[in-house]
Design goal:
The protein is mainly α and 565 residues long. Helices cover 79% and strands 0% of the residues. It is built from 20 helices and no strands. Helix 2 (24-59) crosses helix 5 and helix 3 (63-95) runs antiparallel to helix 10 (239-251).
Length: 565
C-alpha cells in the first residue's frame, strides 16, 4: 500500500495548489464560495433549528412522529448521495485519463480503485456533507447538545451514513458493468431504473408519516407511546431509519438505546466497504477493459441518426444548425442520457408520491409544514436539474468553441439558444411538480384552485431564475478542457452556483410563507381570505426572480465576450 499513500500524498498537494491559485478567476471563485458557503450554512442551520422548534412546540406532534419525518428526509439524502455517486463514479473509475495512466504503472488494481473511489466520494459528496452537518447543528442546538455530540455524530454517524451510500453506489455500478457484458447495457439500465423506481415508490407508500398525524389528536396526551406501535416494518433495517432511531433515542435521553444503532451503521458500512474492495481486486481491471469496449460501441450512438444536418426544417438556418448542434453535443457523452433517465425516474416518483399525500387533517400548522416540505423538495429537484444540465452547457463546447465564435452569428443568439434549450425542459419539470404537489390541496376543497395557479406561477419564475443563474455562472466559471459534464457540474464553480440557487430558493420560500399561512388559515379556520394579499408576494417573487435572471444572463453573455482557455 506504499504506492497508495505516495499517490494520495501528491494528490493532496495538487489539491492545495489548486486552492492557492492566484489567478483572478480562481480568487473570485474562492472568495465567492467562502461567502456563499458561510451564508448557506447559516441559512441551513437557522432553517433546521426553526423547523424543529416549530414542529415540536407549535404542532406538538411528538418526538416519534417528527423523527419519522427525519427518517424520510434521510432516505432522500441517502438516495441523493447514492445516485450521485453511481453516475459520477462511472466517469471517475472508468473514463478518467488518470486511471489509464495508473494501469500502466506498478500500482495494484486495489490501490487504483481506492484512490479513485475516495476521489469520487469527496468530489461528489462535499456539498451534501455541508448541508447535512449544518442541518444537524441546528437540530442539535435546539436540544442543547454539547459540542462533543456533534463531533461524535459527524464521525460515527453522518460520515459512515454517506460513505455507505457511496459504497452501495459502487456495488451497483459493478453489477451494471458485470451484467452489461452478458445481457446488454440497455437491458441492465432498464432493470436498474425499474428496481430503483419500485424501491423509492414502496418506501414512500409504506412510510408516509402524514397518515399518522391523524392519530395525534385522539391520543394527544401520550403521542409517542401510541405511535411507537406503528413500526415501519422491514424499513426499520434501512440505514436512514437507524440514524433516525439513534437521534430519537438521544432526544429522549436514552443513550444506551442509541448506541446500538450507531454500532450497526458502522458495522454494515465496514462490511460493505470491504466487499467493495474484494470485488474491485478481482473485477475492477476487467470491468475497465469492458468499459473501453463499450465506449467503442456507445449505447446512444444509434440515436444520433435522428439528428441529421442534411435535412432542413421550418426553422431559420442558424437556429436549426444551433439546435441540432446542441442536441448532438448533449448526447455526445453517454452519461448524459443515463443521468437524464435518473432525473426522470426521480421526478416521476416524487411527483406521484406528492400527488397522493393525505391532507385531510384540519390542522393549519400541519398543512403548512406539509406544503412547505413538498415545496422545498420540488424546488430542490428543479435546482438540481438546472445545475446538472444548465451549468455545463457553455464549457462543453471545448477548445473548438472558437469555430462557433468566428461564425457569422451573434453572441447573444448563441447564448439565448442555449438558455431556451435549458429553460423549456426545466419549466416542464417544474410545472409538473407544481401541479402534482398542489393537487392534494386542491382536491381537499373546491375553494383552493388559487393555490394551484400560484404554484404554476411560482414554477415559471423559479425555472427561469435557476436556469439563467446556472447557465450564466457556468459560462463565467467554464473549464473548456473538461469534456465530462458530470465533473463540470460538480466543480467548485458549480458548487457556488448550486448554493446561490438554494439561497434563492430559501428567499423564495420566505416570500411564499405568509401568503400560504394566510390562505390555508382562511380555509381550515373558516376565515375570509383577502385576495389582494396575493399581490405583494407575487410581485416580490417576480421582481427577485427577474433580478436573478438578469444577473445570470449578464454573467453568461460576458463570458462569451472574453477569451477562453
Amino acid at each position: 500500500m506504499s504506492s497508495f499513500f505516495h499517490i494520495l500524498r501528491y494528490k493532496f498537494f495538487a489539491s492545495v495548489n489548486s486552492v492557492l491559485d492566484v489567478r483572478t478567476g480562481s480568487i473570485v471563485r474562492s472568495i465567492g464560495s467562502l461567502f456563499v458557503f458561510a451564508a448557506f450554512g447559516l441559512a441551513a442551520y437557522s432553517m433546521s433549528h426553526s423547523i424543529t422548534q416549530f414542529v415540536l412546540e407549535h404542532t406538538r406532534i411528538g418526538l416519534y412522529l417528527y423523527h419519522r419525518f427525519i427518517s424520510m428526509l434521510l432516505f432522500v439524502f441517502f438516495m441523493s448521495v447514492n445516485l450521485g455517486n453511481i453516475i459520477v463514479s462511472y466517469s471517475t473509475l472508468y473514463k478518467s485519463t488518470e486511471v489509464g495512466y495508473l494501469f500502466t504503472k506498478p500500482v495494484s488494481f486495489t490501490s487504483i480503485f481506492l484512490l479513485k473511489f475516495l476521489d469520487n466520494f469527496l468530489y461528489s459528496s462535499a456539498t451534501l456533507f455541508l448541508i447535512g452537518f449544518m442541518v444537524l447543528l441546528g437540530y442539535g442546538n435546539y436540544f442543547g447538545y454539547p459540542w462533543y455530540f456533534f463531533a461524535g455524530v459527524m464521525l460515527f454517524v453522518l460520515i459512515p451514513f454517506m460513505f455507505l451510500a457511496a459504497c452501495v453506489a459502487v456495488l451497483v455500478l459493478f453489477s451494471i458493468m458485470r451484467l452489461a457484458g452478458k445481457i446488454g447495457f440497455r437491458k441492465v439500465m432498464t432493470g436498474i431504473f425499474g428496481l430503483y423506481f419500485f424501491f423509492i415508490y414502496f418506501f414512500f407508500k409504506t412510510s408516509n408519516p402524514i397518515t399518522l398525524v391523524e392519530e395525534v389528536n385522539r391520543h394527544f396526551g401520550n403521542v409517542d407511546a401510541y405511535l411507537a406501535q406503528f413500526a415501519p416494518g422491514f424499513l426499520q433495517y434501512l440505514p436512514n431509519q437507524w440514524v433516525a432511531d439513534f437521534l430519537f433515542a438521544l432526544a429522549r435521553g436514552n443513550v444506551s438505546a442509541a448506541v446500538p444503532y450507531a454500532e450497526a451503521l458502522l458495522l454494515v458500512t465496514l462490511v460493505v466497504f470491504l466487499l467493495c474492495v474484494m470485488i474491485a481486486k478481482k473485477f475492477y481491471y476487467r470491468s475497465w477493459l469492458f468499459s473501453m469496449q463499450m465506449q467503442v460501441h456507445k449505447p446512444f450512438s444509434e440515436g444520433r441518426r435522428m439528428i441529421d444536418l442534411r435535412y432542413g426544417t421550418l426553422l431559420p438556418p442558424q437556429w436549426e444548425a444551433m439546435l441540432k448542434k446542441e442536441l448532438l453535443l448533449f448526447f455526445r457523452e453517454p452519461s448524459q442520457g443515463i443521468h437524464l433517465l435518473v432525473m426522470i425516474v426521480l421526478t416521476i416518483t416524487f411527483a406521484y408520491s406528492a400527488s397522493h399525500v393525505n391532507v385531510t387533517l384540519r390542522v393549519v400548522q400541519t398543512q403548512i409544514l406539509t406544503y412547505l416540505t413538498l415545496f422545498a423538495f420540488g424546488g430542490f429537484m428543479v435546482a438540481s436539474i438546472a445545475l446538472r444540465f444548465g451549468f455545463p452547457m457553455i464549457g462543453l463546447e471545448g477548445k473548438t468553441f472558437w469555430f462557433l465564435r468566428s461564425a457569422p452569428i451573434a453572441e447573444m443568439k448563441i447564448y439565448f439558444i442555449k438558455l431556451i434549450l435549458a429553460f423549456l425542459p426545466v419549466l416542464m419539470v417544474a410545472e409538473y411538480i407544481a401541479v402534482s404537489t398542489n393537487r392534494p390541496f386542491v382536491l381537499a376543497s373546491a375553494r383552493l384552485p388559487l393555490l394551484m395557479l400560484a404554484g404554476m406561477f411560482n414554477a415559471f419564475w423559479m425555472s427561469l431564475a435557476m436556469v439563467s443563474l446556472n447557465l450564466g455562472l457556468g459560462g463565467y466559471f467554464a473549464n473548456y478542457s473538461e469534456r465530462n459534464p458530470i465533473r463540470a457540474a460538480s466543480s467548485q464553480g458549480a458548487t457556488l452556483a448550486f448554493l446561490l440557487t438554494l439561497l434563492y430558493l430559501f428567499i423564495f420560500t420566505f416570500i411564499v410563507l405568509p401568503f400560504l399561512a394566510s390562505y390555508l388559515s382562511s380555509f381550515f379556520l373558516f376565515q375570509q381570505f383577502q385576495f389582494r394579499s396575493i399581490v405583494l408576494p407575487g410581485t416580490l417573487i417576480a421582481v427577485v426572480s427577474y433580478l436573478v435572471t438578469v444577473a445570470g444572463i449578464m454573467a453568461g453573455v460576458h463570458s462569451l465576450q472574453r477569451d477562453f482557455s
